[in-house]
Amino acid sequence: MARHIACLSYDFDTWSGFASRGMMTPTPISRGEFGIVGARRILDLLASRGIRGSWYIPGVVIETYPEACERVVAGGHEIGHHGWSHVPPAELPPQREAEEFARAVESIRRLTGRGPAGYRSPAWDLSAQSIDLMIQHGCRYDSSMMGHDCEPYFARRGDRVAVDAPLAFGETTDLVEVPISWSLDDHPHFEFFRTPAGIMPGLANADAVLANWLADFEYMTRTTEWGALVFTFHPYVSGRGHRMLMMEKLIDGLGRMGAAFLTLDELQQEFRARQGG
To answer: Which of 37, 52, 154, 239 lies 20 to 30 Å from 72, alpha-carbon distance?
Structure first.
């Protein structure tokens, strides 16, 4: 029997993503803080539709806004690991990455009473040791890579990559990779950035983005018997009025196409069951 899954995921970064880019003056920090407003709106929408999502929250955000994060937990949503700071692990020295990873796990334990089932890298850029750290801390899945569009797979570690040689594949692990895509992320579509390096225009028409996202799901239903798409939102991005309406239309449109809404933890469990493990 055909089954097609939609996962609604939320990177609850608030100001931490701006700070990690060196944008620490009052205006960008306030821009991130709008995420607290956006999160309330999103939680209300999800509750109205009876949907649980997966929320990835940096440790610094958990410690800054405990009440806002407690509301996410109270809504029954999954809390995933999203670093301590929002600095991508690929930019951290190994010891610093290990320390930040462990520190974020403890923040999540204090918030939820248990460690995270899954991890999502800030800015979706893993280091050579990131998968080892996930396994060491008991994570069952990662959601930072892009090797498929609508089917999880088991992540590898230890690939050897060189410009002038074939890729040497590493070991396949027991860590499930739940793939993501920049095309299914609200940030590159909607967020305007002006930096010394250039301009990211953002500010796309929300209905055009919605049409793309629904079309991706429709294509999956036509070409697979079982599959899943992961949509990624940032509350400070999609908490704006017209984008909230887009999220509502997306949820209702996916529902009309027969989508089953799962958290990423539920998805990786279902994937494992299908693999016989």
So the answer is: 154
